[in-house]
Design goal:
Blueprint: H1 3-14, H2 20-31, E1 34-35, H3 36-44, H4 50-59, E2 65-66, E3 71-76, H5 79-84, H6 87-99, E4 104-109, E5 121-123, E6 126-128, H7 135-145, H8 147-151
Parallel strand pairs: 1-2, 3-4
Antiparallel strand pairs: 3-5, 5-6
The chain binds FE2/S2 (inorganic) cluster.
Length: about 150
């Protein structure tokens, strides 16, 4: 999220136009996820109340704070997509993300509302339908996972 957009949202909160919870949700909507660096900036740069921010994150199920990373992969694990994902394709992704959290963060999502096109995923803001067989999606993943060879 660029500096201006975050500052704009914080200003709306400071003017009383939106609540703290709404501010967090709006950041997540714009970004697709709430990064740890967003929280650090809200607390350190904008002096927003840390305890209240943590409170809303704890009690708001739809808020997901993720570690800052090079790539973000949102996987739909709603009922329909769950049945369509190839487990043998997901397991290496999970293992990679666990080993390289700074490079890839996986965020599990509920139904994205496009069940008939599943399994669905969003990689770095780009939506992919039929992800098991989507050539561009699979190529992007291969590129991301190939970093392992160069860093190990
Ligand atoms: S279960 Fe994935 S879009 Fe509905």
């Amino acid at each position: 999220m660029d500096q201006d957009r975050l500052a704009f949202l914080v200003l709306k909160y400071q003017k009383g136009e939106i609540s703290l919870k709404r501010l967090l949700l709006d950041i997540q909507v714009f970004e697709g996820h709430l990064k740890q660096s967003h929280l650090v900036r809200l607390i350190q740069d904008f002096k927003l109340p840390e305890d209240e921010l943590k409170h809303w994150i704890q009690i708001t199920r739809s808020l997901h704070v993720v570690k800052d990373a090079d790539h973000y992969l949102h996987l739909c694990k709603g009922n329909n997509c769950s049945q369509r994902w190839k487990q043998e394709a997901l397991e290496p992704l999970y293992a990679y993300a666990l080993k390289h959290p700074d490079h890839l963060q996986i965020i599990i999502e509920g139904c994205m509302g496009l069940c008939e096109l599943g399994p669905n995923a969003i990689l770095n803001g780009q939506m992919y339908e039929h992800a098991n067989t989507h050539a561009s999606f699979q190529n992007q993943l291969k590129k991301i996972l190939s970093k392992e060879a160069s860093t190990d």
